[in-house]
Each structure stands twice: as structure tokens, then as C-alpha cells.
Design brief:
Elements lengths: L1 E7 L2 E6 L10 E11 L1 H8 L14 E9 L11 E4 L2 E2 L5 H4 L10 E2 L11 E5 L3 E3 L5 H20 L6 E5 L3 H13 L2 E6 L2 H10 L4 E4 L5 H8 L7 E4 L4 H6 L9 E4 L11 H6 L3 E4 L5 H12 L9 E6 L3 H4 L12 E5 L4
Parallel strand pairs: 10-11, 10-13, 11-12, 13-14, 14-15, 16-17
Antiparallel strand pairs: 1-2, 3-4, 3-8, 3-17, 4-5, 5-9, 6-7
Helix pairs in contact: 3-4, 3-9
Length: 342
């Protein structure tokens, strides 16, 4: 069967691989119907993702159908439609035993450390499948993106009425925005691209946005927060420059969450952090319960996925289309790839 492989940065190729064997104990064989393209895929393509290994079959935002399961699998059955939790952890690792499967020291993320879903069929641990009865394949492929934002917001726990700044209005930033909105916090979004801020206002219902780059960002934020600056800042840019500067926007007693990732060093003057007694968080991947929560929120209409998908392509056209997704002027929020059944 055919698969798309990222052989090295900037170079995709179409390859032939054998079809997988029947699943054994604990496994499920799934057919891939839809794949979401996210910032990790773009960073891997550009050679800017520190955890990426090459050559690699990408694809970790997946809407799949279960084809067959191992003899001991009970959580899913053939015919079920599922979202994939792509973080393949070692259940016996130190982090996993502490309930932190998202950052297991032996973690193998589909499409990053091990081959992912840009192929019609593959096997994975059945425990990583989250069944949904009402979601489309496109919606199932969006669950993982939303889970990244869900986990980041859980990490910093905004309270109703608290001022929260999200820096970066790409797909990961938008997923953070979705869950900040659910907390009742006062949301502010900052980005360097005016069209992204317009999308936030018109499609995501964000009232306050700040265009970065004019040198007045801190003053604007103080004006929006009664002078004290936000007490939670989430940086979703993956830019070392932005991540280093983000501390300037955190108010006294505040929290800074890095949900984006960079290969470069992040640096800042320690007295600024110390004076305000800030707390710094990393947020990596998501938890199993985040997937189940998101499926329920989409099924009940609490989260509307319709604004998210701005571009669609099919498996055969992806290699030619993919470079355009790296360009902000393309206006991509989320591209979805359709995988043929043949």
C-alpha cells in the first residue's frame, strides 16, 4: 500500500509499504479516513521540531475506523469510529505511573518518533483509541489539536474573570482559546498577523486582540487589564523570541505557560520573574481524559468545529500542496487530508 514519507526536511516522497498483519493482544488495526495537518507537521517539514526523527511517515491528528482488534480488546470493536490519542507511552515508566502518560520518558508519538497515519492502514495499542458515535471523520481528526489546548488550560487553571493572554493565533493557540473561553476568564489574543486576529474576532468570538510588533503591546495590555497585566500568559508561538519576551506581559503572581516548542534557547532576565514571583509551566501533549472530554463537548455542540477547517486536500495532492501550508498568506487554520479507501 502507498504511504507518504517525510524523508528529510523539505522533502516528501510517496513510498510503498506492506499491509499490516492482523492485530495481536492489546492491538487494533485501523483504517485512516482523515488526517489533520498541524504545527508539528509544519515544524517537522521545516526541520524545526526538536523531537522529530527522519525518515518518518507523518500524521497524528486522525479520524479512523476500526478494522479488527486483538483477542483481548474490549474498549473498541470493528466498525467503531475513533479519534486517536497518538502518544504511545510505556505504562511502566516513572511518568506513566504518576499519571502523566503525556510526558512519559519512553514516549513514542505517532508521526514524530514513530510512523503515523499518512497511510491507509496501521496498527496501534487499542487503549489509544477514543470512540465517538456522533462525530464525522473530520471532527475526529480535530480532537487531538483541541486536546493540546485543553491540557495547556488545565495546567494554568484560569478562574472566571481572570485576565488571560494567548500569544499566537495559529491552530495550537486557537485550541487554547477554545478552552479559555469555557472558563469564563477575560481573554486577550496577541499575534503578528492581522488576518489571524480578524479570524479570532469574527469566527472565535474573541473581544480583545492585540497586534504584535508596534512596540505598544505592554501598554495596550495594561489598558485592558486595569494596569496590572494578565495573570496568565500562554505562549503558543513556538518562537524563541516570543517565548523569551512573554515574561514581560505576565503580571505579579502570574503564570506563564509554554505550549509551543522551539529548538532555540529561551532566555530572560531572572529579576523580572523573581520580582513578580511568576510560575513557569511547560505543557506537553494531552491526557486521555482530555480526548473524552472534547468528544463530548463537540457532540453536545459546546465546541463548534466548523470554523476550524479552512483547507482540504486529498492524499494524492498533499505533497504538492503542503509547502503552501507553511505560508501565513495562505490563510490556513486547519488543513484536512482525505485518505482514499482503496
Amino acid at each position: 500500500m502507498r504511504a507518504i514519507q517525510l524523508e528529510k526536511p523539505l522533502h516528501f516522497r510517496l513510498i510503498d509499504i506492506p499491509e499490516p498483519d492482523a492485530p495481536v493482544a492489546g492491538e487494533a488495526l485501523v483504517r485512516v479516513h482523515r488526517i489533520g495537518i498541524c504545527g508539528t507537521d509544519l515544524s517537522g517539514y521545516l526541520g524545526k521540531m526538536p523531537f522529530y526523527s527522519y525518515p518518518r511517515i507523518p500524521g497524528h491528528e486522525l479520524g479512523v475506523e476500526v478494522v479488527a482488534v486483538g483477542p483481548d480488546v474490549t474498549n473498541v470493536k470493528a466498525g467503531d469510529t475513533c479519534s486517536v490519542e497518538p502518544y504511545i507511552n510505556n505504562p511502566n515508566s516513572f511518568a506513566s505511573k504518576r499519571g502523566r502518560t503525556n510526558c512519559c520518558e519512553d514516549l513514542q508519538v505517532l508521526g514524530v518518533h514513530t510512523d503515523g497515519g499518512m497511510r491507509p492502514l496501521f496498527k496501534l495499542p487499542a487503549r489509544k483509541l477514543h470512540k465517538a458515535t456522533k462525530l464525522s471523520m473530520e471532527q475526529l481528526a480535530l480532537v487531538e489539536t483541541l486536546a493540546i489546548g485543553c491540557h495547556a488550560v488545565v495546567r494554568c487553571a484560569p478562574q472566571p474573570g481572570e485576565d488571560v493572554l494567548v500569544i499566537g493565533a495559529g491552530p495550537i493557540g486557537l485550541s487554547v482559546i477554545e478552552f479559555v473561553k469555557l472558563t469564563g476568564a477575560n481573554l486577550i489574543v496577541m499575534d503578528m498577523v492581522a488576518s489571524r486576529l480578524e479570524f479570532c474576532r469574527n469566527s472565535m468570538g474573541v473581544k480583545y486582540t492585540v497586534l504584535a510588533g508596534d512596540g505598544n503591546e505592554e501598554k495596550t495590555l495594561r489598558d485592558l487589564t486595569d494596569g496590572h497585566l494578565p495573570t496568565i500568559v500562554v505562549d503558543a508561538t513556538g518562537s524563541a523570541k516570543s517565548m523569551s519576551h512573554a515574561l514581560n506581559y505576565v503580571g505579579h503572581t502570574g503564570k506563564l505557560v509554554y505550549v509551543g516548542i522551539t529548538t532555540d534557547n529561551v532566555s530572560f532576565p531572572h529579576p523580572l520573574m523573581h520580582r513578580r514571583e511568576m510560575t513557569l509551566f511547560a505543557s506537553r501533549n494531552a491526557m486521555p481524559e482530555d480526548f473524552d472530554r472534547i468528544i463530548n463537548l463537540i457532540e453536545t455542540g459546546t465546541i463548534d468545529t466548523r470554523p476550524w477547517i479552512t483547507h482540504r486536500t486529498n492524499f494524492d495532492e498533499l505533497i504538492g500542496q503542503f509547502p503552501s501550508y507553511t505560508k501565513p498568506e495562505t490563510g490556513v487554520i486547519k488543513a484536512i487530508v482525505e485518505v482514499p479507501i482503496s
